[in-house]
Amino acid sequence: MADYEPLNADTGRLIGICPECDGIINKFVKCAQLNKIRGQLDITHTKALKHIPTLEQIKHVIKAMPNQTDIERRNRSLIAFTLLTGARDSAIASMKLKHIDIVGSCVFQDAREVKTKFSKTFFKSQCG
Hints:
- The chain is built from four helices and seven strands, in the order βββαβαααβββ.
- The chain is of the alpha+beta class and 128 residues long.
- A hairpin with a 6-residue loop joins β2 (11-17) and β3 (24-30).
């Protein structure tokens, strides 16, 4: 049995155990080769891992975003707010101003009013 993880449209990684010698298979293969290999291995397809941007990449995006109009400043602020709080997009969309303490640098996600995962209430503070 082996897992095929697509890396792009025509190439992927095949990872598994060889049925003949019990050795480890870990190699790049062309998608076109899979039909030949299928006769020898039971191949399952796995989803490729999503790219997660680094902190530096996110900071670069924020700095590169336009900020001339109110809408552009709002968009830039939302990306920065998401980065600083780690809140989910559905939670941010359902937050009210009363959930944010700018002076205290904290956010209160009240599950009765904010859409949080598994209806959890929690407090996020920039300072600690």
